[in-house]
Amino acid sequence: MSAAVKSADQHAEGSHLINFVNKIIGQPASYANKKNYTFGKTLGAGSFGIVRYARNNVTGEDVAMKIILKKALKGNEAMVLEEIKLLEELHNSHIVGFRDWFESKDKFYIATQLATGGELFDRIVQQGRFTEHDASLVIIQMLEALQYLHERDIVHRDIKPENVLYLTPKTNSPIVLADFGIAKRLQNSDEKLLSSAGSFGYAAPEVILGTGHGKPCDIWSLGVVTYTILCGYSPFRSENVTDFINEVKHNNAVIFHADYWKDVSKDARRFIVKALQYNPDNRPTATELLNHPWLVSIAKKHTDADLLPQLKERFDAKAKFRQAIELVKLHNRINKLKAMQTEEDDDPTEINMFNSNGDVSDDDSTKKSDHSAPSSTQGSALNNWKKFNDSLKATDADSIHTKSSLTDTTPKQKGLEPKTTAAGDAFVQLVHAASKNKERVESYKDKQ
């Protein structure tokens, strides 16, 4: 018997043994696939689980591994299976690629392409310059992803900058759309969904009102993103549902402040107004927007004016604060998930966060790994506690600027009183207190 044949037989015997053991201890058959992965540090966390860096030891590919606690789903496992089924069918260069999935008796595992180039806003401020033409290239790629989805009667429902990622750190890196956790496939093109979805500030009016939404809700969200990456602030000032609806229910709600839009073409503004129509029936499709003059011919002529200085000023206005709070929120989400587990779970240490040195968690699965997760962005709040502490120190050094920027970075509209600074001051005090007492930071509670 040749060595190759003998090795194959031994591997087969090992697989049979693993499957037999899993069956005995009540694990699903697919759980055997877990042995193919080495897990690294935590990259993020949500209500149902966390995302960890992982390496496929068979292919050598680095992936983002979403680990979802079944207990957190409270009987809604079908939601995860629907997401998996949808991801398996998506094959587009501007949509994060599906790689694998398996489950244990306690968790679902979903492996997707690992985007290492950073989130949209973070990446923009790291560039040397950013022009209207650069912005149009971002929007074209987002629209191509939406066109692909909408042609298949799929609505993403959570288009926002955090879900727009650069695939690699390279200058010419493509953009990918991520996080399909609340995406839905429509039964037909005209079906209206009534369930809540999206993120306030980017969600369309019909989503917030619960009057029924479909593909046009993604177009609205794209309009908000387009406005924001061209000027650095949101098109809307409202901080609650009632005020938001009152602000946007008239089609002249979008204001382009002259001081901040003087270097942006009128065609870009027309594009935004089309996307931000209050009535969803009046919004163009993704295909129609791809054929808009701004994207087809106008934007490529606007390569001289550098928008980055004003964008950076506004994107950075809340960055230090966001870096501090995002890590606190991450820590609390993970603590909530850990509290749901018991010693009977297949691996209670798996839902964890990297330690205070920024290393991977000291659990058995990560001790075996020499690999740390590539940083998605140099300024990310999720890299390690050192970055967190640095952001606190920087906040102290620049407290006056931070206090003013936390309250409102949107230009004041005529007839509107400036917002109160109470909320901003309270948040600054929280950040200052965090530098003196880490326990208080760790007890910070997410808004439910």
What does this protein structure show overall?
The structure is a single chain. By secondary structure, this protein is α+β, with helices and mostly antiparallel strands. Among the domains are: 33-113, Phosphorylase Kinase, domain 1, CATH 3.30.200; 131-305, Transferase(Phosphotransferase) domain 1 (Transferase(Phosphotransferase), domain 1, Orthogonal Bundle). Helices cover 44% and strands 11% of the residues. It contains 19 helices and 10 strands. The strands form 3 sheets. Strands 1-2-3-5-4 form a 5-stranded antiparallel beta sheet. A 3-stranded antiparallel beta sheet has the order 6-8-9. It has a two-stranded antiparallel ribbon with strand order 7-10. Strand 8 (164-166) and strand 9 (175-177) form a beta hairpin. Helix 7 runs antiparallel to helix 10 (266-275).
Regions with pLDDT < 50 over 5+ consecutive residues?
Answer: 355-409, 413-431, 433-442, 444-448
Task: Compute the average pLDDT.
Answer: 78
Per the CATH scheme, the topology name of the domain at 131-305 is Transferase(Phosphotransferase), domain 1
Strand order of the largest sheet: 1-2-3-5-4
How many individual β-strands? 10
The sequence of SSEs as H and E is: HEEEHHEEEHHEEEEHHHHHHHHHHHHHH
